[in-house]
Each structure stands twice: as structure tokens, then as C-alpha cells.
Design brief:
Elements lengths: L25 E9 L5 E9 L8 E7 L9 H10 L4 E5 L17 H16 L4 E11 L1 H12 L3 E7 L4 H5 L4 H21 L27 H7 L18 H5 L15 E6 L5 H10 L4 E6 L6 H4 L6 H11 L2
Parallel strand pairs: 3-4, 3-5, 5-6, 6-7, 7-8
Antiparallel strand pairs: 1-2, 2-4
Length: 328
């Protein structure tokens, strides 16, 4: 019996909203493909206008920060890397933005890992992509998911993380009574969702561009630099207002995404962070868990979110050299 696909909403040209300008030398196409769970993913495919489609090229799949969308950081990276000769897929995770899946904003470590493998499925069947030369790149939370996907998907030949977060490890930090209290509250939230016939999700950022501010209000439930990106004209997107439904946190509290990172070897890893990024410890911890070949690259001072969109700070030459060497 054929399983149904949760259809993505097809974006119209007049509804497109990107936080960056597409380079004049780059082509961007909207593409749609299923995960192994039958959920349709919405993604953007980037490649150079002068790409020779009669031969095969290396491919890259790029995932967004937690709650982010392809029109933000992933598109920034894809736009730059396409100019360097890669065929790049930047995707919306299942149940987020233009990708299908219900309830909206549902998340689990397993589905986030599958998002990467589904992107590999898609890019690997393109006639002009060499399926033996596919790499993954994850920004922020997708850095941890990219490593997790690489650990279970041998088709990913090299992986880069940029200012990574390990969300499952972060969610699993509470112990004892603190953990018990969280489990109790989230378990009861399942009853509330059933009673309300909707899944509780807490938006963090303004839903309308007209409501954007320049200074974070007192008591705002996020770090100032996240506000500076997601709640201002710099990075705001109407589909990037929240992270995941409340009950989704149960999955993260009970998932060890880093259990097999040491088995990524001999495939190479490059972990990129900055000297002053608040997330730096996640990259350093992951580096200790990985086996050679591995590299930890600590860039000069920059905020965590600067590596979402600041093309003058993100070390694209370093990323390009890593993939060129390891996707030969």
C-alpha cells in the first residue's frame, strides 16, 4: 500500500523572501522530494550558471539552525559555495516552513537526521552530481544533526559544522528532580495538546515585519544575539518564528546523537567556530569525541550568529579547500 506524502506548500514567486541577494552567477531552483517517512521536503537547489551539466560535480547538502529556514543561513552558504563549483541543496526540515509534515514545528533528532539523508537521496540522483562526492554542512543545531547523519549514512563523504550546537546533549543535561519535573510537565502537555486539538508551540519572534525592533525587550526568552538576528530586518523570516513544539522536547531528552560520532572516521570532519562564540564548547567537545581525520578551526572573534550570514567573516575559503581535498 502506498503511504501518503504530507505535501509541502509550493512557494509562489511573489511570496519568496530571502535575507540575502542571489549572486548574478548562480542559479536557484525550488525543488521538492520525499523523506523515507513520506514527508515532502521543500528545498532550494543552487549551482553556477556556467556549470557544465554534461559532466559530474561534487554535491553538498546544507541544514539550517534550530528553527531556521533555507532562505536564511543555508541559502547564504549555498549561494557562496555554488560560485565555487558545487551543486548545493539547502532545505527546510520536515514540518517546518515550506516542507510538509504535521503537526507544524514538530521535531525529533531522528527526523532531523533523515532530512540530511533525504537531501543526499535527491542530489545523488541528479545526472550532473557525482554521488560518490557528496558532503554535508550543518549550521548551529544542524551541525550536530549533520554529524549524526554522517555517522549513520556512509554516502556522506565529508562533513563541516559551523558554530554547532548539540541540541540532544543540551536537552539531556538536567538530572534528578529537574529532569523528572521536565518529563512530568512535557508528558502532561501531550494531554493538553489532545484536549486543545493542536500542538503547543511558543513563537519567539514577531510574526510581522512591521513589528520588528532594534533592541531586545526586557524578559525576552532568548539570547540577545538570537534576537539581533531573528527579530530584526537582518535575519527575520515569517517562517522562522519558533523552534519546535513543546512535546518535541521529550525526544531530545532521550536521544544520544553523539554515540557513534567516533565511527565517522576515516571520513573527514571540519568543525568551525569562533574565538568568542557562546557555542564554542560544543565544537570543542565534539572534536574530542571524533577520530582522525578531524580539524577544529577557531576563527577570530565573531558572534555565534555572525556565522549565519556574515560572508565577510565566514571562512568560505577554508570550507572550499576542505571539500575540494576530501571530495576528490
Amino acid at each position: 500500500m502506498t503511504q501518503p506524502i504530507f505535501k509541502a506548500e509550493r512557494v509562489a514567486v511573489e511570496d519568496e523572501y530571502y535575507i540575502f541577494d542571489l549572486d548574478a552567477t548562480v542559479v536557484r531552483e525550488h525543488v521538492y522530494y520525499p523523506t523515507r517517512y513520506g514527508v515532502e521536503i521543500a528545498a532550494d537547489l543552487y549551482y553556477s550558471k556556467d556549470l557544465d551539466k554534461s559532466t559530474k560535480h561534487p554535491g553538498l547538502v546544507v541544514g539550517p539552525p534550530f528553527g531556521g529556514v533555507k532562505e536564511q543561513g543555508p541559502g547564504v552558504y549555498a549561494n557562496q559555495l555554488a560560485q565555487r563549483g558545487y551543486v548545493v541543496v539547502a532545505f527546510d526540515p520536515a514540518s517546518h516552513s515550506y516542507s510538509g509534515g504535521q503537526p507544524r514545528y514538530t521535531g525529533s533528532p531522528d527526523t532531523y537526521l533523515e532530512d540530511f539523508s533525504a537531501a543526499v537521496d535527491f542530489i545523488g540522483i541528479l545526472d550532473y552530481v557525482d554521488r560518490n562526492r557528496i558532503g554535508a554542512l550543518g549550521i548551529c543545531a544542524s551541525g550536530g544533526f549533520a554529524l549524526g547523519a554522517t555517522a549513520q549514512d556512509a554516502r556522506i563523504k565529508a562533513v563541516v559544522t559551523s558554530v554547532m550546537y548539540d541540541i540532544p546533549s543540551l536537552a539531556g543535561m538536567p538530572t534528578g528532580q529537574d529532569r523528572a519535573d521536565q518529563l512530568e510537565a512535557l508528558s502532561l502537555q501531550r494531554w493538553a495538546d489532545l484536549d486543545n486539538k493542536s500542538s503547543e508551540v511558543k513563537p519567539h519572534y514577531p510574526s510581522q515585519a512591521a513589528e520588528l525592533g532594534s533592541t531586545m525587550p526586557d524578559g525576552f526568552p532568548t539570547l540577545p544575539e538570537f534576537y539581533d538576528f531573528y527579530a530584526t530586518k537582518r535575519g527575520w523570516h515569517p517562517h522562522a518564528l519558533a523552534n519546535i513544539t513543546e512535546v518535541s522536547n521529550l525526544s531530545f531528552m532521550n536521544f544520544q546523537i553523539n554515540s557513534y560520532w567516533n565511527e565517522i572516521s576515516p571520513r573527514p570532519t571540519l568543525l568551525i567556530t569562533t574565538k568568542t562564540a557562546h557555542s564554542r564548547a560544543f565544537s570543542e567537545t565534539a572534536y574530542e569525541q571524533l577520530q582522525e581525520p578531524k580539524e577544529l578551526y577557531i576563527a577570530p572573534a565573531a558572534d555565534h550568529v555572525d556565522f549565519y550570514d556574515r560572508v565577510d567573516l565566514i571562512p568560505f575559503d577554508k570550507i572550499d579547500a576542505f571539500f575540494k581535498e576530501n571530495l576528490k
